[in-house]
Design a protein that fits this description.
Elements (H helix, E strand, L loop, with lengths): L7 H4 L12 H9 L6 E7 L4 E6 L1 H5 L8 H4 L5 H20 L8 E6 L8 E10 L5 E10 L9 E6 L4 H9 L6 E3 H11 L4 H8 L3 H14 L5 H10 L12
Parallel strand pairs: 6-7
Antiparallel strand pairs: 1-2, 1-5, 3-4, 3-6, 4-5
Helix pairs in contact: 7-10, 8-9
């Protein structure tokens, strides 16, 4: 993969700083944030590049919550998923830091594999706090271990960010890491598999049929497939359809 998004931007924020488990802010989050049985939750502040809170990792991964920092959290992915995650996070952080309009609505999801852990994990990240000008202060990550999720060598992800159509189009269709597919395109493939015509799908997406075909042609090229029938078959084999994100959005 030849990409300028190698994780360099993301790594600039990573540090071993963390709030002490006896601190007021940690105890506040411990009281107010609901962490489910199969869930791991963290809060990271970009003011001071510090992990403010982590809970659930000890129960699921056997890693002490109080000893975690953001460097450790970002080292949990398998090497294959790490390549994707660093490009993905670089692009998202660059966008969030250069835009302060409607970023409170931001959310992302990735179905991932963690090193030495057999159960797939749904990684969800949302904005936790912004300042009075809308600038990013902190994020909250909710990571759910779910044995019903299916993974393959095609990484599945979703992104929701306000109304910036140009950025959304780019991140849905034009990542440098080629063995991946966005929820946007997963839903298109699902509709195609149900026999819905491209003209109808394009109208639902508020794009032209030509633009939809252009996006689909990129997918065919990416996965070396010859036609749309082969694409839907490929999607079933790789656990891309049916859509696995529905209960997480």
């Amino acid at each position: 993969m030849d990409s300028k998004y190698t994780g360099k931007y993301t790594k600039a924020f990573l540090s071993d700083k963390k709030a002490k488990s006896q601190s007021i802010e940690y105890e506040y989050f411990n009281r107010t944030i609901d962490v489910k049985e199969n869930e791991m939750v963290y809060i990271f502040s970009f003011n001071g590049n510090k992990l403010l809170f982590a809970k659930g990792y000890e129960n699921i991964l056997g890693i002490s919550d109080s000893e975690l920092d953001i460097l450790h959290l970002n080292s949990l992915f398998t090497s294959y998923y790490e390549r994707f995650v660093f490009e993905f996070h670089d692009r998202l952080l660059l966008f969030l830091y250069n835009n302060n309009n409607n970023i409170e609505d931001f959310s992302s999801n990735v179905i991932t594999e963690l090193e030495g852990f057999d159960i797939p994990v749904m990684i969800n990240v949302k904005i936790h706090r912004t300042d009075d000008n809308g600038n990013l202060i902190s994020i909250i990550g909710r990571n759910v271990a779910d044995q019903n999720l299916k993974t393959s060598d095609v990484i599945q992800y979703s992104v929701h960010i306000g109304s910036d159509s140009q950025f959304i189009s780019e991140i849905n269709n034009d990542l440098d890491f080629k063995r991946c597919i966005s929820l946007y395109n997963i839903l298109v493939i699902e509709k195609m598999d149900k026999g819905i015509e491209l003209e109808v799908i394009a109208e639902e997406l508020n794009i032209t049929t030509e633009k939809l075909q252009e996006n689909l042609d990129k997918i065919l090229t990416r996965f070396e497939l010859k036609d749309y029938k082969e694409l839907t078959q490929f999607a079933k084999i790789k656990h891309i359809i049916p859509n696995q994100f529905e209960k997480y959005l």
